[in-house]
Amino acid sequence: MLDNLADLELEQLILSSCIQTDKFLEVSEIIQEKHFTKEHHKSIWNTLKKLEDKSNFISAEMVAIELNKKDIETIGTLKLLLFKTPMPNLKILAVELIEWFNKRELYKLSIAIQESLTEKKTSAEIIKVIDDKTIDLDQGIESRAKSYAQWEIEKESKAPIPKYPTKVSFIDSALQSGINAGQFILLMGDPEAGKTVLATQILRNIVTNGFIGLFFSFEFTVDDFISQNQEKKREFNKDNLQIINDGYDLSDVSREIKIWAKRGCRFVLIDSQMRVSNSENKGTVEQSESEKFSTLAKLCHSLNIIIVFIAQQGKEDTKGGTHSPMGTKKGAHEANQIWYIHKEKPKYDNDGTDLNKELRNFEISKNKQNGRHFKTEMRLDTVKLEFVRKYSHQETTFEDKPKNKFIKNSPNPNGGKDIPIYMEEHNTADMPIID
Hints:
By secondary structure, the chain is of the alpha/beta class. 39% of the residues lie in helices and 17% in strands.
């Protein structure tokens, strides 16, 4: 079948035209050795590339000299090529040559799919095979480069980058009103610091703002998540929140993200790194972990979505104050932003109560969105189980109650002594003067 998916006359015509005309440079960066089917054709093509790399003039004589050094048998093929009438427009021939190559690769893919079905692999595993095999197919022959002026025109024609407010004041302040689309965010922190609490708080706010959110709840059951929301009597747009509680493999996670991105999802929360497996990667542990982050980062870029990935940090990765996910240095490189939640050191009163139990430090240690590094204190509201600014105006428990100030005596309508009138000291300026 593969023999029927090739055009040997076309291959010969391209090689002949490259040797007998000065058009080789037009296709030297387009056509590759793999596009040819016959070994003699590949050998002649590599010889042409070698001459080009050495800046030598390409001619039939120079090609023959090079072939004689290592591949004498190919001289016969070269002689046949020289009887072909060269074509002036090599780019048209190059397009046709690459098309034949793509068809051969698709045929090989069809065989791989059939073998996967015979081996009873899951549909997610087969889709990954398709993605891996087709990603390198040549879709065109022109360079992807554009001039600055062309990119500028294209930028002006696009809609502004969408921004999604988190409704968490200190985060929106640091990111200038919200998270830009296309961001891959790592949320890390000390053990029991509240990573899931902060992430789900943002998730509820996002879906209530009218956007679809996707939550991979791998660390807690859906029942637990629902029970907590019911206990706290939280009101949010429950129809916009999609939850997945199984399918831990990276291929399954990627597939679900692609499905929901097509359905309008713009915010994804994955809890957490340690639960996501990578069965397809047979390399080292670091390679397997790194692929998780590179795959998710590419999805953010290609689908223009936000992914918050809760990640664990290994002890070895904390040296020098760096925040790198457990098992991979590349993970931190892939992230657009890295958020970290620090717990305060315990501070006990005379009763043994930890006065710092609710206090946290929130840090943005990497920020490709606007370049701003940010750190602020925040407090865990244990009633709502949500984070707020430490010194939010809503916080009254950290401030002394205002002292009362005596104003005047008011007559007692029942007789007897006058009744003293007090008011809060910080409000006296707003009170009318009492004679």
